[in-house]
Records
---
Amino acid sequence: MAFRIYTKTGDEGQTSLFGGRRLPKSDLRIEAYGTVDELNSYLGLVRDLSTGEQGRALLKNIQSLLFTLGSNLASDPDKQLPVPAILEADVAALEKEMDRLDEGLPELKNFILPGGHPAVSTCHIARCVCRRAERLVVELARREQVEPILLKYLNRLSDYLFVLARELARENGAAEVLWAPRKEQEG
């Protein structure tokens, strides 16, 4: 018999964590790792739209680490389960890549508007989804045990995605549009 993707165990709005504990699909923990999964999908699109081989390879690695991060969130925190780890070295790799990319980018003194090229826009969407995932994991960590490195990684990843969006604009010849606040109208 072939493997079936459907199990019918979630038909009434519940799902299982690794370890067996059942939770409503609307639980904050499920929302958090579901948002990480959404981020991973957007990063796949960013990778597909990217032009640089080195950047695509790093994005593929980040996607793999997001599965690691998601597996941590999807595991019952009350059980000691063997799950893969996010490491300080993973955070350091993002920092190193940001520093490398920053060297070739103009200094930024203003906010920029997302857009200019589909790769840039998609990367900014991924950055926003990453920030949402981070907010959800922050709230989850207030209620339950969450490894602090998960928050640190998501925080650094959103920073990286901002720098990557700027690099994708440079690679694709898209001008960065600076945000100009509206000035007060006279009279």
---
Amino acid sequence: MTRMAAHDGVAVVTGGSAGIGAGICARLLEEGKRVVSVARRAPEITHANLSFLKVDLANRKETQDAFANLAGREKILLAVHNAGVIRPALIEDASVDDLDYLTELHLASMISLVQAALPAMKAEKFGRIVGVSSRGALGLQTRTNYAATKAGMFGMLRTWALELGGYGITSNCVAPGPVESEMFHEIVPDGSERKSKLAGSIPVGRIGAPEDVAAAISYFLSEDAGFVTGQTLYVCGGTSIGSVVI
């Protein structure tokens, strides 16, 4: 019996309605976990162990209230903050309002999730926190605000690794490269020459799939990863080694 089964906790996945988030939910459900998807729209998949919490994660009060209510009725032992948007713009057109929005979505809502989950994690002496950042945090054209907030996740998660390790709680980050998703296709149209060129420029020769990211997150959430904390794993097909233009 796994520790999660013994403690009867839930896994919370933000942005679990589609793309990478849906892939994460599907993987955790296959592993027998109970999963709560937190997003603005319902998940694409249905499952007896999957529930949905409708929340605008860029709305601070709504987010804090929703997570507090969830933590009041469930033990959140696995927390995956995946929700995100890009809002691309060259620096000449970068909007500080967009920076505020992405800060709420990428950073503030992750703080709210972790704060809600910590009482149960500390009581159980077991917890797993995973943030989904981006290879783009290393720098990418049109990503001023996106890169800034996704890079901010690195420091937050490393800080929590130091603060929470003694409670049996690990804190890690997964940074995907180009992955097939609705958000990706908003930038790179499916079937386009641009997509083919991008795939050819990736060292492994293909665009990633949500399942690639879900597999890495599954490891970080497992008991086997109890001695791994404060780390960032690039699931990027090798694009973090050099430059990529999308």
